[in-house]
Each structure stands twice: as C-alpha cells, then as structure tokens.
Specification:
There is one protein chain. The chain is an alpha+beta fold and 209 residues long. It has three helices and eight strands; from the N terminus they run αβββββααβββ. Strands 1, 2, 3, 4, 5, 6, 7 and 8 form an eight-stranded antiparallel beta sheet that branches. The structure holds a DNA duplex (12 and 12 nucleotides).
Amino acid sequence: MPARDRADVVRRAKELLGRTITGHGVSVRITEVEAYGGREDPASHAFTRTARSEIMYGPAYRLYVYRSYGIHFCANVVTGPTEIGAAVLLRSGEVVEGVDLARLRRNHPARDVQLARGPGNLAQALGITLDDLGTDLLAEHPAAEELTGVRLDRPRRTRPRIEAGPRVGVSKAADVPWRFWVAGDPTVSAYRRSPRAPAPGTTLPAREH
DNA sequence: CCAAAGATCGTG
DNA sequence: ACGATCTTTGGG
C-alpha cells in the first residue's frame, strides 16, 4: 500500500489513544489499539474483500464488529480511505463511567483494571454486539439516548506518551509493529504471539517509507 | 458440501 | 498448553 495510506491508519490509531468511547452507558478511555491496513495488509480482515469486510470499505468512523472464536465480540473503528479498507481494533481501556454496569457485564473480575483489558473484554464492558455493527461513532445523540448507542468523543488536545509493538494474535505480518498503547498504563493487555505465526524476525516490519 | 482457521480469554 | 464455541471463508 502507498506510504501515505499506511501513515493514515497509524496516525488515526494513535489518535484514538486517550479518547473516550461510550457504549450503552459505559465509558472507556482507550489505552491500547491496533492498526489494520486493509487490502494490502495480510493480517487485515479486509485483505480479501468479502461480505464481512465490506463495511471496512465504507465511510470512516463507523463501527466494525466481528465475532471472535465464536465467543467474543471485537470492536473496530473504520478509518478509511474507502478504497483501502483500513480499520483500528480497540484492544483495551480504562472504564471511567458506568463502572457498576461494566462490572455486571463482565461478571465481576477481580480488579477494575481488567474490566476492559483485551478486545473481547472491552467490547463486553461496553455492551457491544453485532447489533452495533455499522454505528456512526461521531453521530450526536439526544440526551434521552445516552444509554442506547455507541459513540466516540473528540480527540484530546494533549496526547499520551505512546509505545508500539507487534500486533497480538495475528499469524500473518506478525512482526509489523502496529499495536500502540499508552506507556505504563495498567489496563494495557499482555502481548501474546499467535502460535501459528512464523518465528519472530521472520517477517519484515512495515517500512516507514 | 465440508473442513479449517480464527485480530480471544480464562484456567491449569 | 488447552478448550470453549460458531461464523466466515476457501477448497473440492
């Protein structure tokens, strides 16, 4: 993919760190994300354009939700441009509003930092399911609908310090360092390499230009 | 049609 | 290290 487009997904992924996403009455400060580069990224669901990935080729800042391992849901922000099909997986965050509701949805994990740590857990804390697929994350909601939708606040002016590393669980392009997280944040998940990925160092990291 | 893989998670 | 659980995808 052209360098310009790679930079777009990465910039938008980093820009999501520190922002707040609200889902069905629970708000989370995003602390960990992964960029997926669409048609030219072998790890991206949009690497092959199918019915499932079609939404990734749609307007930016819509919600892409998929079922993971038959068990969990994972939430992504489509970032565009539409011909590329890029998106950002929301991996972890800190619950900053609706903590009681998040605890209920997550069945009371031992510690609150675990409420939205990991993409499946984050989606569950926010109450995100396939029903939310395609939600316009920037749409304004009437006050009466505060508890019903999913939305994203504006970018923060002061950005957190960011660290980067390889994406979790991918078997293709396993060394591309497109996972980004807030440095030192306790809600960031642990790195786990896919057992199906080739040995570390076998695949080249994404070139910066 | 069938089989396999999968952007996970909790437990052991 | 492993199993739960099910949808999507690709091959024959």
